[in-house]
Amino acid sequence: MEKNILLIATLDTKRSESLYLKKAIDRHPGCRALVMDISMAAHDFADAEVTAAAVARAGGSSIDEINRSRERSRITATMIRGAVALAGELLEAGKIGGVVGLGGSTGSLMATDVMRALPFGVPKLMVSATAALPGLATRYIGTGDIMLFHTVIEIAGLSPLLKNVLDRAAAAAAGMLEVGRLDAAGARTPGRRAVAVSQFGICEGCASRVRKQLEASGCDVIGFSAAGVCDRAMEEMIAKKMFDAVVDLAPGGVGEHIMAGMRSAGPHRLEAAGKIGIPQVVAPSGVNLMSPRKSRYKPDYHQRKKFDLDKLRTFLRLNGEEIEQVACEFARKLNQARGPVRVLLPTRGWSSIDGPESAIFEPETDRRFIDRLQREITNPRVEIRTFDLNLEDPAFAGIVAENLLELLGR
């Protein structure tokens, strides 16, 4: 069966390079590239299966308006909106099995916006001359499962070097199509529940033990590193109803967002599971810490208790007022939950770097979080339980797993 891949490019600036990549993809057995033109400048090329005019219409405008306008941000948003709509329609109709983008800065930003709008598991490859520019790579990928191919050389002219790059990109795209799109059936093991787990290095032992116990009890466990990006992606995937339950071991991204830390997971962290009503077990790993950029330290930050995670990241202890502020935000989010929630709070430290022997251990400050959370929670679906343990104690992992299984009804 022929497998189609959508090739998103700007024919007004990269026609010859795009058509070369199309032909290179077409040379692979069973593969065919469909070109989507997202050009914003006028041209008379007729090489695209999905024309720029069609993209503009789908975005609520016309190609003449796009060509005439000098409001670059507005017309870019229009073309992205149209491309997202048409790519989604092609995917839903089974007419494409994956996406490849080709471009520089603007083309890469536009194409990856389209890719991120498509479901997890759809093959996505961005061939970009600007993939390594500081700040752009993370913008291109965001929370999407996108592969970046850095061309190194500019995508301009069909030199032997660029042909080699495009040939390799075509082979990569064809290889991803061999695996194909992950559909709803393939995302779950029949007869097993899918459980999302947030985790981080400072609660890795707990996460590993929870995973093993849940897997032995008939669950597929999908982990997400709570460094600010993958836990944000976890929220998006929860909202799409990909999981039956959540074990949120490391929800520190909530406080990091308030404190503008490097692990900020955005304004909607800890909300998706509650909105759709699936069971949640929440633990506090890292919630009493923040990781602001050192260039943005406030004067008192230099006097805080700290832990150097590595040469780039340092955790600072939250003070009493800050941790109560975070508790209030937790309560605001959990009070919206439409399903059962268990908040499990150890009192002897909230991570592997937080215990009686640690310089950052402050049980009295942690107690302020617990007390404030208990006062602020008004949702009867939310139950708070405390334990005379450290979060990394093996017994605590067993408690987490047992509580989740209980909420799932075994």
Report on this model:
This protein is an alpha/beta fold and 410 residues long. The chain has 2 domains: 3-179, Rossmann fold (3-Layer(aba) Sandwich), CATH 3.40.50.12020; 193-407, Uncharacterised protein family UPF0261, NC domain (Rossmann fold), CATH 3.40.50. It has helices spanning 11-26, 52-58, 63-68, 72-92, 105-116, 136-141, 160-179, 204-216, 230-239, 253-259, 272-276, 320-334, 363-376, 394-407; strands at 3-9, 31-37, 98-103, 124-128, 147-150, 193-199, 219-225, 245-248, 280-282, 289-290, 306-308, 314-317, 341-346, 382-387. The strands form 3 sheets. Strands 7-6-8-9-13-14 form a 6-stranded parallel beta sheet, sandwiched between helices. A 5-stranded parallel beta sheet has the order 2-1-3-4-5, sandwiched between helices. A 3-stranded antiparallel beta sheet has the order 10-12-11.
